[in-house]
Amino acid sequence: MGQALDEDAIRKGFDRFKADKKHHVLADIAQRHGVGADALQAFVDGVLRRRIFDGEALSELMAPLDLGWKARTQKGAGVDGRTDAAAAQTSPRARHFGFECV
Prior knowledge:
By secondary structure, this protein is mainly alpha-helical. The chain has helices at residues 7-33, 37-50, 55-62, 69-72, 84-87, 92-97.
């Protein structure tokens, strides 16, 4: 505290802040949906690397939850806690698994 930082130190600090925030948000999402944080991170990294949504990989990620198709498509609040109206704004495949496409 009290010392002036150069541009490089500010950039490194901000990059570290963004990485920490990303890690915490992903861990919260994993906990909320009952999946492992490492498995979710691997899934997200794969989607971002390939730039293609992989529904099969998402099915594998969600397999430990042992949810049948009925449980994933329940009317009312979905797996992610949103209402049908909010879920209608996502793609059908993502809605099927309770995730929102951005």
